[in-house]
Specification:
The protein is mainly alpha-helical. It has two domains: about 90 residues, DNA polymerase, domain 1 (Orthogonal Bundle), CATH 1.10.150; about 170 residues, Intergrase catalytic core (hpI Integrase, Chain A, Orthogonal Bundle), CATH 1.10.443.10. It contains 14 helices and three strands.
Length: about 300
């Protein structure tokens, strides 16, 4: 550690930023470390450029920092994470009245070389769920399955592993076992509760042949529904609904997150419901939303 580092810590409010991330935002230690690392890296760069405190930071200085990272050969996804961390840092400084304006406001994260699946619109979601085959005896199961995927933002692996004891329809909550065995509680909306109740009352008893091991969603042989089974059911619905986009089970999860944010949900709540360990993973949906706004502007504004 050099003699300058403690001064940088104080001048750039980094200790207070760490407390904010842990106590106020409740982020995981791993996420806190990542955000602090990026804030410290930028603070050191700012000092090297003659800027001794956050109030002197400009948008151009931030751009220069990101350009330097890109010039070092860092991946676009890494630079994008830096952008998300710095946005969080400068939002904190605004709240703390350490700066008067946010120089990170116009920063755009670079494309990370991978695109999200298409997000379905609300009418497309309604058409998809409503495209069950009324002649099929498993129609209530299929509807309940789609309602849970979209209504709770579940991964397909989480859906097929779901057991009855993990679903509380009275409390409108489902306990989900996500990646790495981590558990989270996700609200179950009215439409999903109604569809699941109908499935449990009318269809699942006929499917259950004593081999379900307590799983909620079963196939025609009475065994837990597989991920491939979910894919096949979804594909039939997509075809019947006449949706031309490429739709996967994960598309419904992306649609869940995007529609929540479009409706005004805060990022931390969506992160919790999705089970993301790092909020920068959730923040990609805000980037999708900005891209959509730009497309609308280009398409409909006379000078777009």
């Amino acid at each position: 550690m050099t003699g300058e580092e403690p001064d940088i810590e104080r001048a750039f409010h980094l200790e207070s930023f760490r407390d904010h991330l842990g106590f106020e935002r409740g982020l995981s230690p791993r996420t806190i470390d990542a955000y602090l690392r990026e804030a410290r890296r930028f603070a050191a760069f700012a000092v090297s450029e003659g800027v001794a405190e956050p109030a002197g930071v400009t948008y151009q200085l931030l751009r220069d920092h990101l350009a330097r990272l890109a010039g070092e050969g860092r991946a676009a996804s890494t630079v994008a994470r830096t952008v998300y961390a710095l946005r969080g840092y400068f939002r904190f400084l605004i709240v703390e009245d350490a700066i008067e304006s946010d120089p990170s406001e116009r920063l755009e994260a670079p494309k990370a070389g991978r695109s999200l699946p298409d997000v379905l619109s609300v009418p497309e979601i309604e058409a998809l769920i409503g495209a069950t085959d009324p002649e099929s005896r498993t129609a209530p199961r299929d509807e309940a399955m789609l309602e849970m995927l979209y209504g709770c933002g579940l991964r397909v692996s989480e859906l097929v592993s779901l057991k009855g004891r993990e679903l509380d329809l009275e409390e409108a909550l489902v306990r989900v076992r996500g990646k790495g065995g981590k558990e989270r509680f996700v609200p179950v909306g009215a439409a999903a509760r109604s569809a699941v109740r109908r499935y449990l009352r009318t269809t699942r008893p006929a499917l259950d042949r004593g081999r379900s091991a307590g799983h909620i969603f079963l196939n025609a042989r009475g065994l837990p529904l597989s991920r491939m089974g979910v894919w096949k059911i979804l594909r039939r619905h997509v075809e019947r609904a006449g949706i031309l986009k490429r739709v996967t089970p994960h598309t419904l999860r992306h649609s869940f997150a995007t529609h929540l944010l479009d409706g005004g949900a805060d990022l931390a709540s969506v992160q919790e419901m999705l089970g993301h360990a790092d909020i920068s993973t959730t923040e990609i949906y805000t980037h999708v939303d900005r891209s959509h706004l730009r497309q609308v502007h280009r398409s409909h504004h006379p000078r777009g």
